[in-house]
Amino acid sequence: MTAKTTMKAVRIHAYGGPDVLQLEEMPRPEPRANEMLIRVQAAGVNPVDWKIREGHFPAPLPLIMGIDFSGKVESVGREISDYRVGDAVFGQVADESGGYAEYVLAVAPSVARKPEGLDDVRAAALPVASLTAWQALFDTAGLEAGQKVLIHAAAGGVGGFAVQFAKWKGAHVIGTASADHADFVRQLGANEVIDYRKTKFEEAVRDVDVVLDTIGGDTQERSWRVLKRGGTLVSLVQPPAQEKAAAHGARGILVRQKPRGDQLAKIADLVVSGKIKVTVETVLPLQGARKAQELSQTGHAGGKIVLEVK
Ligand SMILES: NC(=O)c1ccc[n+]([C@@H]2O[C@H](COP(=O)([O-])OP(=O)(O)OC[C@H]3O[C@@H](n4cnc5c(N)ncnc54)[C@H](OP(=O)(O)O)[C@@H]3O)[C@@H](O)[C@H]2O)c1
Questions:
Q1: DSSP letter string over 25-80?
Q2: Does the CB atom of residue 103 touch ligand 1 within 6 A?
Q3: Distance between CA 168 and CA 225 in Å, rounded?
Q4: Tell me: the pLDDT tens digits for 141-153?
Q5: CA neighbours within 13 Å on the CB side: how many for 48?
Q6: Ligand 1 closest atom vs CA 152
Q7: Rounded distance from Cα 157 to ligand 1 centre (Å)
Q8: Which of 120, 147, 230, 272 is the Cys-Cys partner for 209 at CB 3.0 to 4.6 Å?
Q9: pTM for this structure?
């Protein structure tokens, strides 16, 4: 019997609603010299996935959905020296690859070794969300112990990690969430939780060093008022207006998350040592990709969504 050369993957051939997602049999990719082929155990779901599906970030079609994965190295390109067949790894896929699949391609700087104490489902939930929080708070805003940070959507994928990282760093953490998620955000370590549906956060908070804007629009607009002079508004979704930043004596920066295996390794250590929790709210099989994206698109999924690929 010849070895199987195909794989199952969730692809799109056109941009559109959830019905463009198709679970298909397709050729298994071959790693280039600087890539490894990884057998996927679990794939993380992020809001950017449905945004890509709808065509907000155009790329050649057809494309395989998904960025985050956890799995085992199946084969390596000739330039890969740090990883071997059988190694457990997690991270972000290479260009033209996709996580909602039985196999993905990845380059070494975008992956980290998966420690034994971290299971595939939680590992797959980490890359985009945790790295975004880490890079926004520490690399961009330079958050330090003793500073005050306001985290919007503190119950969300990014916000949940941001609350924990900021607390771990020694900051005073204020999060916004609906009443349904207030206890959850407090358990993550927030000092204060504001119900954004009942309370105008700009009337309840002031003199903040850093705002993490995960929402944009009116939320970003009202956030300038809570910043102290010299503070930083970091947005994940909308470029902050520079004239508004100047008027408030603050910095306004749009962050674009980058794959960083070295930072993922640090975060994995924090998870294994119990300092950071990974809250996976929903686990679905690969066939559940449509349901997963529909849930993500509601904007009210508390915690992460992961596809198990067995
Ligand atoms: N620039 C980048 O590189 C980058 C990277 C990652 C993510 N992003 C973007 O950042 C955004 C957040 O990502 P995510 O993964 O954290 O999303 P998510 O997990 O889908 O966020 C869901 C959370 O948002 C909360 N929420 C919704 N509306 C809110 C409001 N007006 N005020 C406060 N909280 C609100 C919900 O809380 P309740 O259910 O309690 O209402 C829910 O817990 C997405 O738009 C994503 O595409 C950008």
A1: EEEPP---TTEEEEEEEEEEE-HHHHHHHTTSS---SSEE--SEEEEEEEEE-TT-
A2: no
A3: 26
A4: 999 999 999 999 9
A5: 19
A6: 33
A7: 7
A8: 147
A9: 0.98
